[in-house]
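User: Look at the shape:
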Amino acid sequence: MGIIYFDNAATSWPKPPETIAAMQNYIQNIGGSPGRSGHRLSVEAARIVFDTREKLAMLFNVSDPLHIVLTKNATEALNIAIFGFLKPGDHVITSGMEHNSVMRPLRIMEARGVDVTVISCDREGLIDPEQIVRAIRKKTKAIFITHASNVTGTVMPVTDIGRVTRERGLIFCVDAAQTAGCYPIDVAEMNIDLMAFTGHKSLLGPSGTGGLYIREGLEKIIEPICVGGTGSRSEVEEQPDFLPDRFEAGTPNTAGIAGLKAGIEFVLSNGINQIKVKEENLVKMFIEGVRDLPGIILYGQTSADRRIPVVSFNIAGMDPGIVALELDERFNIMLRSGLHCAPCAHKTIRTYPSGTVRFSFSYSNTKEQIIESIEALKQISKERKNI
């Protein structure tokens, strides 16, 4: 029995062969540091980095690729957005479904004098934009919202929220860690001002890659959280004030960026809509196969087209960690159980503190794997019933 990998919301695997080949090619044949030298290998490395920005700009409908800052993950991108933008006395709004990559920086800023309002979501993890409107105050500066929950898979009404923020002159920051690469994103249409994303999930790149989109005009009012060498303006001791150098101090993970570029090209060549449809079908097949099993409790939206390929569930009377262990040891099914670094989301869906069992699918998963997992859960739930 081969491994069935359903932990793609943590890190996608396996990566496309193109991702691996691109990283190997950089390490073996290029190796230069982008922007740090004038020789041909450095120039080739710089081309890889810029091409990656262009591919990301194409994917997210960003007009200027230089407004995509490359980071080591979505967490670093969110740190730049939160620590670099907010000031004591500001008021911000977020949701009760956020990952700790949003909540922890916000709580630190709260201790420094930022007022934080957390809007409650319904039991499916969905936020009502009207609640955001009612929470806006005179000192409100920004809205921080996840595009889709890493616990329930619920997709937030980002377009509606973006319209609200733009009408009221607020900054709209979206955490797209779970949607970049598997769900259509148009920063212009959605009125997104800042967007954090990671490379190692649905963009099919390696870990240690990600980025932050910064809308034109915001780059000068966001302070960098890391400064140093950029390869540009080496004659001055002050950090450059232009994009992307303002936020990209230090030698980048060029091998990882080469792999990220290949992953994005894989996504673009297959098409976001095609990827979305396949993953929706896997979710629908799984939900239909397990929802009537004894003891199974499903969380999140019931409709597959209103969620990303993430499904959380529990088996009544069983600790989610025990379920995960049995699926791993007996059935070779790899997944994640617990709180998924999102305790407030679990409080929202009332699964705190034990959490849930989470299956997260990807484009590389198959219907046959879904069938095998359904059969495994049938067996576990039957055994639980007979105890």
